[in-house]
Specification:
The structure holds three protein chains of three kinds.
Chain A lengths: L2 H19 L3 H21 L3 H25 L10 H25 L13 H9 L3 H29 L1
Helix pairs in contact in A: 1-2, 2-3
Chain B lengths: L2 H5 L1 H12 L5 H35 L15 H11 L10 H18 L17 H22 L3 H32 L4 H7 L16 H17 L11 H4 L9 H26 L15 H22 L5 H28 L4 H23 L14
Helix pairs in contact in B: 2-3, 3-12, 4-11, 5-6, 5-11, 6-7, 7-9, 7-13, 9-11, 9-13, 11-12, 13-14
Chain C lengths: L3 H19 L24 E5 L15 H5 L5 E5 L19 E7 L8 H5 L5 E3 L15 E2 L1 H4 E3 H7 L1 H27 L9 H7 L1
Parallel strand pairs in C: 1-6
Antiparallel strand pairs in C: 1-4, 2-3, 3-5
The chains are: A mainly alpha, B mainly alpha, C alpha+beta.
């Protein structure tokens, strides 16, 4: 465990805790952004430049902004009243996710820490995406395009109704 | 001293200084010496640009600009700076103190981060990383968050509206910005800014033949990139996030004194950074524009090109009125996006055709055709004519 | 074609930009402290009190009739009438002693430069000045102008508003002539009432 790792892990965890505990939803979203930046830092620390930077570009640049917009446009600025049932189900779900992740990491063999990290240059990632993984990439692209068109269609439907 | 030595003078000085320091702190000294000049040069450039911009805009409107402070008014930024420093720093009672305080800092910080990957001269880049371009856009994405923080933290409806406008606009124009630079990445085959500059090196006679701006897709890509950059840095005519007439300076309505100055600084730093990226991607980076001018140091060429683009920004600002929100969005999604897609398509053709005049023509055809068609469609049969005013004449 | 208008606009601003360096006619700015426009004769800013002769206190034309104080729309004039009378120092009241303003203050932060005080004054005693660089660092005392601050010689009036000053002087001369003619007429028509004192008549209004 190196010093940068400890600092970044602390930032990530602090951000995540703040995102759970803060009262105002916008604060939670901003804390989530901090946590995501910390995670990106961890990727960069591991030498995965592309993943780390894409993390910032996509999550901070798009997802957090989307969340924030959703909060603002639905007027959810008031702190929600905490309910025991909701908290219990939340804890159970996160415990399940955590368990699955731990199982995946342990059985994946990465936990031994013996395998030297392979620093793939970014051009290799590009080549792999454009040759070996071209089909999954295209499928993802198609899915996203379909989602985009679907969103536009739904929005236009609403507009017609309001007229 | 040879031209080579003059060109590399800063690099040599830095190496010498690093070697002078004790071995333990050498990495830290190296980082400091790379970063510190940027922290000094670009804010000074900001100071010079504000006064040049005000003078230039004044001349475009047939008046003198600032000419009172110092010779020809060139000490005006000093006076402005002192004024900003001694002004009262007002934080609204209802504001979210922490978010309100952090927003300008984050904005300036992310703006400075963008400079890490811009080569300002031969061997003069802070972080020569593989995915430099992704880094640049990632830092730009963090800027949106800071603008949102400023708008929301002020707890003011005008600030909020301004921030919403700014974020919506920046997200919309980020798509054409990134797509037009993807064309360059496709041809250069690299995301590294230094490699992209290297690929554009070389002359054909005296002419810098390999600059991407001299290809049909590069020329269109450059124009689209600069339009998107104008929108991204919230400059006129895309400055409706800060529309003074309707939302009173938008997301920095509630900022005063030095924090306001920081916003101003952040905005200009963003503009310099994105102009620097345009220079790197399309205008051959720090290379001399003609082969017999290579004796002039590379860093001078970089800043000369940068200031030329800034002059373009100022010229545009002095000319065009502010767009309306629907015009802004229509322009982004109905014009910019299809154009950038066809630029990428054209770059693809360019990649696989043998070089020659035929390639030039073939690659230009789809771009010109789409431009003409979009122009016809968007004008919707209206003709450009002199506007008449019924009661004024 | 799309974009032509933008190019035309750019050409226009470029023409302005370079034109402003070559032709002085384009630059209409007057660089104020160094260059000044000649003020039109009718320019007016704040009122002043006219005095004749060279003594500002004794020579004031004002007789504290308070018409201007009453008429002033924003009520920026405040006058205290004297208890005694002073001799007709300037010789425009046919030698009769007159009341004089013990205090005559104008709050120029309130004054709206309407010139109504000038219109209503029957004695040509208050006129409009055209001095405009009047900023002060004392926003209460510095903007409350007293009698001494307001007093200006008639020659100043003649200098800044020659046409109006000539009219005003002519009116005064006529009045003086009439006043001088009156005692003569009164002397001719033997048992006649003395003419009512002008200042007294005005204050009774």
């Amino acid at each position: 465990m190196t010093v940068p790792f400890l600092i970044l892990a602390a930032i990530t965890i602090a951000g995540a805790v703040a995102a759970m505990t803060l009262r105002k939803l916008v604060h939670c979203a901003l804390a989530l952004a901090v946590s995501l930046v910390g995670l990106a830092g961890l990727y960069l620390d591991l030498g995965a430049q592309f993943v780390g930077l894409a993390q910032v570009l996509v999550y901070v640049g798009a997802v957090v902004i989307l969340i924030v917009f959703a909060i603002l446009l639905t007027r959810g600025d008031e702190p929600a009243s905490p309910r025991v049932g909701r908290a219990v189900s939340g804890v159970m779900i996160s415990a399940c996710v955590f368990g699955v992740l731990v199982w995946a990491v342990v059985s994946g063999g990465a936990a031994q820490g013996t395998a030297a990290p392979s620093l793939a240059p970014i051009s290799d990632i590009g080549h792999a995406m454009m040759s070996r993984y071209i089909l999954p990439l295209e499928v993802v692209g198609l899915l996203l395009t379909a989602a985009l068109i679907g969103a536009v269609v739904i929005a236009m439907e609403e507009k017609r109704r309001t007229k | 001293m040879t031209t080579q030595a003059v060109d590399q003078i800063f690099v040599t000085i830095k190496h010498w200084l690093v070697l002078q320091s004790p071995a333990v702190i050498q990495p830290a000294v190296s980082v400091l010496l790379s970063v510190l000049p940027l922290l000094i040069i670009f804010p000074s450039l900001f100071a010079v640009t504000t006064v040049l911009e005000r003078k230039g805009l004044g001349r475009m409107q047939n008046r003198y600009g600032p000419n009172r402070v110092g010779p020809y008014g060139f000490l005006q930024p000093l006076a402005d700076g002192i004024k900003a420093l001694i002004k009262e720093d007002i934080v609204p009672v209802g504001a979210d103190k922490l978010v309100h305080f952090l927003a300008p800092l984050l904005l300036v910080m992310t703006a400075f981060l963008e400079y890490a990957v811009i080569p300002v001269g031969r061997n003069m880049v802070v972080a020569d990383m593989d995915s430099a371009l992704v880094f640049f856009f990632a830092a730009g994405a963090a800027m949106e968050v800071s603008i949102f923080m400023a708008g929301w933290g002020s707890r003011n409806k005008y600030s909020m509206l301004g921030a919403m406008r700014a974020v919506a606009q920046m997200i919309s124009y980020e798509a054409p910005l990134i797509l037009s630079s993807i064309a360059v990445v496709m041809i250069a085959g690299s995301l590294s800014t230094t490699t992209i500059v290297e690929r554009q090196a070389g002359y054909w006679g005296v002419w810098p033949y390999h600059w991407y701006v001299f290809t049909p897709w590069g020329m269109a890509g450059f124009v689209l990139f600069m339009i998107a950059a104008t929108a991204e840095s919230n400059r006129s005519p895309f400055d409706l996030p800060e529309g003074e007439s309707e939302i009173i300076a938008g997301y920095f309505t509630e900022y005063s004194g030095f924090k306001f100055a920081l916003f101003f600084l952040g905005e200009y730093l963003g503009m310099f950074a994105i102009s620097g990226l345009a220079v790197t991607l399309f205008l051959g980076g720090w290379a001399a524009p003609l082969s017999f001018l290579t004796f002039i140091p590379s860093w001078i060429w970089f800043f000369a090109k940068l200031m030329t683009l800034i002059a373009g920004f100022i010229w545009i600002r002095g000319t065009l009125p502010r767009l309306r929100m629907d015009q802004l969005m229509n322009f982004a999604w109905k014009f910019m996006l299809p154009m950038t897609l066809v630029v990428i398509f054209s770059a693809g053709i360019w990649r696989f055709m043998p070089s020659g005049i035929v390639r030039w023509v073939v690659c230009a055809i789809p771009i010109v055709l789409l431009y003409w068609l979009l122009g016809r469609a968007l004008m919707g049969g209206r003709k450009l004519e002199k506007r008449t005013y019924r009661f004024a004449e | 074609m799309l974009g032509i208008g933008i190019i035309q606009g750019l050409v226009e601003t470029a023409r302005n930009f370079f034109g402003s360096y070559t032709s002085k006619q384009r630059l209409t700015t007057v660089q104020f402290p160094d260059e000044r426009l000649i003020q039109p004769e009718a320019a007016r800013v704040f009122p002043f009190l006219v005095y004749d002769t060279d003594d500002w206190e004794k020579g004031l034309r004002c007789v504290a009739c308070k018409i201007c104080e009453v008429e002033c729309p924003p009520q920026c004039i405040s006058i205290t009438k004297s208890a005694d009378k002073k001799p007709d120092y300037s010789g425009i009241y046919s030698g009769k002693p007159q009341f004089y303003p013990e205090k005559f203050d104008i709050d120029v932060s309130v004054c709206m430069s309407c010139q109504i005080c000038v219109e209503v004054c029957p004695f040509e005693a208050i006129k409009m000045d055209n001095a405009f660089e009047l900023s002060t660092d004392d926003r209460f005392g510095g903007l409350m102008w007293d009698k001494q601050r307001l007093a200006m010689p008639n020659s100043h009036y003649q200098a800044i508003h020659p046409t109006d000053a000539a009219e005003s002087d002519a009116a005064l001369a006529e009045k003086k002539a009439k006043a001088e003619a009156k005692p003569a007429a009164a002397a001719a028509a033997a048992p006649a009432k003395p003419a009512p004192e002008k200042a007294g008549a005005a204050t009774e209004r």
